[in-house]
Specification:
This protein is an alpha+beta fold and 149 residues long. Helix 1 packs across helix 2. It is globular and about 45 Å long. 25% of the residues are buried.
Length: 149
């Protein structure tokens, strides 16, 4: 899971279609499998299988980079550059939990509209500020994610 920059509502229907297509194309290039994706206006969830030879951080970085580049390159967004927020949240779960996780992610819009979100799946800490150094630190990650196929 990761969010748009400052949780701005940047994911409209057109951006969602493009982001989904780019993510699936990039995933194929990287040798990872996207089981499901779910998006709302300010964040997305992906259920992926990542081979143990791949770094989760590197995969997420490439997915985020390719999708934001595509949206900015193909759409002229009047004054609103498409950008992902720093960091991401990762949740690891077993194969037996996969059907429930897929169902939740598939119904993202419905869960957000009805207020039936699951805190475990929606938890993405806000960026911290290191006031001494004046630098912005990344977001927290609750765990790691690998699902066996």
């Amino acid at each position: 899971m990761w969010a748009t920059y400052e949780r701005l509502p940047l994911i409209d229907d057109r951006a969602e279609r493009l982001v989904r297509g780019v993510l699936h194309s990039k995933a194929k290039d990287l040798g990872i499998f996207i089981h499901e994706s779910g998006m709302v206006e300010d964040h997305l969830h992906l259920v992926v299988s990542i081979p143990p030879t791949r770094s989760i951080a590197a995969v997420v970085g490439q997915l985020k980079g390719s999708s934001s580049h595509a949206v900015n390159h193909l759409f002229n967004r009047a004054g609103a550059r498409f950008q992902w927020q720093d960091g991401y949240a990762v949740l690891s779960f077993g194969e037996r939990a996969l059907p429930a996780v897929l169902a939740y992610v598939r119904r993202q819009k419905e869960h957000h509209a009805r207020g039936t979100t699951n805190d475990l799946f929606e938890r993405l800490a806000a960026p911290d500020r290191d006031t001494r150094a004046g630098r912005r630190r990344g977001m927290t990650s609750p765990g790691s994610h690998n699902v066996a196929r």
